[in-house]
Structure formats: C-alpha cells, structure tokens
Prior knowledge:
Blueprint: E1 2-7, H1 13-25, E2 28-35, H2 42-49, E3 53-55, H3 58-61, H4 64-71, E4 77-80, H5 89-94, E5 99-103, H6 117-126, E6 131-138, E7 148-155, H7 162-186
Parallel strand pairs: 1-2, 1-4, 2-3, 4-5
Antiparallel strand pairs: 5-6, 6-7
Helix pairs in contact: 1-7, 6-7
Amino acid sequence: MHSIIIFASGRGSNAQAIIDYFRNTGKAKVSLIVTNKADAGVLEIARYEHIPFLVIDKQTFKEALFIEQLQEYNPSLIVLAGFLWKIPDAVIHAFPNKIINIHPALLPSYGGKGMYGHHVHNAVIADAKEESGISIHYVNEVYDSGNIIVQARCPVHSNDTADTLAQKIHRLEHYFYPRTIEFILNHP
C-alpha cells in the first residue's frame, strides 16, 4: 500500500477528501499530516482519523532531521493541500518528483507568492475572467511553476463572489485531487 504525507495549513477539506477516497479504494493511506499552524483544522481530522501529525515551525522545516522524519514514512507522494509555506529546496531534492500541489486557479495565471485562497478568487473576479479552475502540479523551487499534471475548469459568472467561486473550486479539488494522486501512484 502506498504511503501519502499531506502538508496542510488550514481546515483540511482536501485532506479529508483524500483520506476518504483512499479509505474506499484501499490503494494508499495517509501516513502523516504536517502543518505549520498549531490551531489548523486539519489537526482535528488527523486526531479523528488516528493519523500521526507534526506541527512545524520555520526552523524545523529547514532541518535535516525534518527530512529524516518524513523519510521514515517512506512516502510514495507528498501532497500539499492548502499548505502556505514554500517548500525548502532540500526537501524538494530529497523527494524528487514526489511532491505535488493543488492551486485554485489555471496556472500560470494567478500563481506565485501570496496567491492563495480568496486572494486568487478576488483577482480572477476583478479581471472579469469567464472561467477559473484548478491546477495540480509538481513542486519545484519556484512557487507554482512546476510541471502541470492536470487542470480542471469551471465557469465564472458575473454574479460570482470570492465565496461562490471558492465553492466551485472546492468541488473540483475534492473530485480531481484524489483521482490524480491515484493516477500518479499507479503510473510512477
């Protein structure tokens, strides 16, 4: 069975979707959850699901010991699910082509530092775009610039707000992220 490590900073809705999906398929399991916030909602999910977790600070994130801790779980994939810190180069190099991210826009548009969540949705609406979507991509040393694996689209209507667009984006994320992970695990 494949081991997945999830990094998340928020409430963890994508983490829950991934956990639920693989509970049903039996092809992988979430072995560890890593967060940078001691009050992140994803920790409630980790506790409820009996998944080990790490709460890290910026210093820990850069230490070789952190990489060693991750390696103990022998991850087939490290999945960023709303994790708001840039991944250190040392972690990227320790897990080549094994770290993926989901971004709430159609990259390369609306990517980069500071572009997450409602910041992205507000920018899409301000630019009067007719569509938005998600991008699932490999992580490299530059924010949101790794090779794109999958994109999925949704319409943006003139009456959409950041909240209504976020709901559309979450539906895409919860459907496509687990299935994309499964595809990657089945086609290394």
